[in-house]
Amino acid sequence: MTASRTLRVLHAEWTKFRTVRGWVLGSAGALLLTVLVGLLGTAAPAGPGAVAYPRGPGGEAVNDSFRFVHRTLTGDGTLTVPLRALTGLADTGIGRAPVAEVQPWAKAGIIVKESLDQGSPYAAVMATGGHGVRMQYGYTRDVAGPSGEVSERSPRWLRLVRAGDTLTGYASTDGAHFTRIGATRLPGLPRTVRAGLFAASPQAMHDTGTGAGFSPAVATGAFGRPELTGGWSESGGSAGGGPAGGASAGGGPADAWSGTQVGGGAGTSGSYTSTLTGGFTRDPGGGFTVTGAGDIAPVVGGPVMGVGYAVENFLVGTFAGLVVVIAVSTLFVTGEYRHGLLRTTLTATPSRGRVLAAKALVAGGVAGVVGVAAAAVVLPLGESGARDRGFSVLPVGSATEARVIVGTGLLCAATAVLALGVGTLLRRGATAVALVLASLVLPFLLATSGVLPPGASEWLLRLTPAAGFAIQRTLPYYPQVLSVYEPSTGYHPLAPWTGLAVLCGYAALALALAAARLRGRDA
After folding, report:
1. What is the pTM of this model?
2. Number of structural domains found in the chain
């Protein structure tokens, strides 16, 4: 009986909504505005030429650019090598000599990689310029190993063990006692893979006086003689990137090793300048010196990405659509107050909480459908148009894109419920609309415009209803990737679902207070 009564109230509120032309047209207008403003907001006339970002196993954009000295491994095997030094050079500008400077996330180590294709699965153990030894895999995963810098007096022995599709990384300070760092499984890893030594360095970040600037940098790893066990090849291709010849390097003849520059370095210093070059050399004792630029990591956006768009850029029209959603949802209750119709509604349905819940379901449901439909239309149109005009679009995985589309609907739905609750509390449409806009849209615009210090901007996005916009963000923070992680460059301090939960909390609070007030006084 209670369920049927609730359904009757819900049906009555839905009938009321769809028979008021202004509310229906307003909802349609919110959808249209979201799409049009999103497309117009990213309709720059021409770009510098789209960059085809390689995609990682999860569909995300990745950097996969490094100097690789490798050979073929068939089946199981182990690679162990001492790293005796890690140094670096950074470009300081046109006409200036590079400076000796190793970047904190510059890296040199050993890697097993499915193929030489960018974006192919890998696992690597490496020493870094400022974060000790690490094991990294999947482009986004980073596991800390022993700390400390590498030098001639304090070398690091690095080891990778392949057993089927499982890779396990180890490190040692003496070459005898190894510490396990971590392990990963690479499903579908072929029997024959490429494995060997590598070096890479992301760009050097420096203060330009007007913000962060980035310049090319390289890293050089000085490796001792590699030790190999398992199914390693006895011959290789040309030694591109280094001189031919040399002594045996453990487990086979010297010419079994090949040098390759993997990738061109989207978003990194993978393309060398005239003063910074990469390559490798062999020493008489069977060791290698490898110099490279670039990174093996996710593309994080921000200044490093250069000119281009992230998925959320095409959803800028959400702000315009939300203004209409807020107005419609507020009028859905304040309009009845103004015309005295709410008293009639409550006479027919004495359960005031049930009436308010039905209104919230209708307003939130309509707004949610508007948000999902708008995002589903504007994203493919915006991405296609941007690429046609020569702009890069940072790709994301299908799960992330689905989260953004569904999340835009949930953002609109939660905002509609918030507006309905505030409208019920204040009973004045204009005041309620202004208050919701001031608490939701204004903090986001202030935080992302760069007019506030980064710390203040982050707190606005954590504590106000504007936290809900995190559900549309696709630029995550990765501590192992150097960039400018600030709201003004597209980053949100909260995880997507956490930010949406903050907005939903405000909406639930407003609705609860509205229900309490509705029960406590006459309509």
Report:
1. 0.82
2. 2
